[in-house]
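The records we work with from here on pair a chain with its fold. The integers have meaning only within a learned vocabulary of local backbone shapes. A complete example follows; check for yourself that the lines match position by position.

:::
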Amino acid sequence: MPNTQSAERPEASAHHRFWSRTRLAIVALLVVAVALCIIFIDQRFDDLTEPLEAMPIVAALALLGAEMGDIKIGSALVLLVIVPAGWRWRRAALTIICGLVAQALSTDLLKWLIGRPRPCDYDNPALSPPPPGFYGPGHDFNSCPSGHAAFSFMLATVAAAYFPRWRWPAYLLATFIACGRLMLDKHYLSDVIIGAALGCLIAYLFLRIWPAQDTG
């Protein structure tokens, strides 16, 4: 038995180091991607998507995604399905409820702290919008991060934990909702990336507290 334990410990330690480095690499890549978007890509991407935004089918799909990503509608539908089910799904409901609260509070706090105007704020020149940038607390700008992206990716991460076979459709649906916010000119690309990362992180933290595989 001691020999078995001593053989398993280095393997477990190597596995832990691998995932720790992987997480750090993902965070580093995410930070770099957001920085590149803010400096070089956001405005260019918004200009490039203007022809798409004018297409009726794209506008209709974007509005559909906005409805699906609405926190009130989405959370009510999810809880309506899983609350009457067994204990495992009630754990999922608890995870989602806590995730919803944490996501809403953190998103609103970041919006207030960052103070970034939305792309659509510049559609009406009569409003005399400020130059693009980050204005911080005290300004009524709420582009960053995207609340719809945070909400949809939080739900997708929880769904992927409980239904691993459906993880890709869940993330594709979340991506569809997030892209709809871009097509509606509500957010920049970096706003959506930050919102998606925030939603995944919040779901991950609560899934560490209530793991999906533990049925009680």
Notes: The CA atoms of residues 145 and 194 lie 6 Å apart. Helices lie at 2-48, 50-53, 56-68, 71-82, 87-114, 147-162, 167-183, 189-209. The chain has a mean pLDDT of 86.
